[in-house]
Amino acid sequence: MNIFVGSLPFSIEEADLRESFEVYGAVDSVKIITDKFTGRSKGFGFVEMPNDAEAQKAIDELNGATVQGRAIVVNKSEPKPEGERRSFNNNRGGSNRGGYGNSRGGNDRGNRGGY
C-alpha cells in the first residue's frame, strides 16, 4: 500500500521516517518530496508497505502523531484521476495558468494589454 505522510518537519530524513513505519511491518520504500531547485523538503512524502494490514495499522496509529513537535497526517495515498494532473511538459502556449486577463492564455502575441 502506498501511504501519504504530510505535515512533516522539514528536518526529518527518510531513514527516520522509515524507522517510524518499520515498527508496524516491512517497508519497501520511503520518499520525502523535495524542491527540485533548493533540495529542501516540501514537508510531505510517501511510504510503500507491502502488507495492507500492517500499512493500515501504521496509518491508524501514526495519523495525528507528533513528530519533532509537529502533528503529522498519514493516510492511504490515492492516485489523482488522469484529468486532474497538471502537465507542464509540451506546453507551447494555450495554457491559461497566469490569469492576467488574456483569455487565450500562453503565447498570445496579439493581446499585449491584458495585464
TrEMBL record:
Residues 95-104 have a biased composition (Gly residues). Signal peptide: none annotated. Residues 70-115 are annotated as: Disordered. SMART domains: RRM. Residues 1-79 form the RRM domain. One of its GO terms (molecular function) is RNA binding. This is RNA recognition motif. (A.k.a. RRM, RBD, or RNP domain). The lineage of its organism: Bacteria, Pseudomonadati, Bacteroidota, Flavobacteriia, Flavobacteriales. Gene3D superfamilies: 3.30.70.330. InterPro entries: Nucleotide-bd_a/b_plait_sf (IPR012677), RBD_domain_sf (IPR035979), RRM2_NsCP33-like (IPR048289), RRM_dom (IPR000504), SLIRP/GR-RBP-like (IPR052462). Residues 77-87, 106-115 have a biased composition (Basic and acidic residues). SUPFAM superfamilies: RNA-binding domain, RBD. Pfam families: RRM_1. Keywords: RNA-binding.
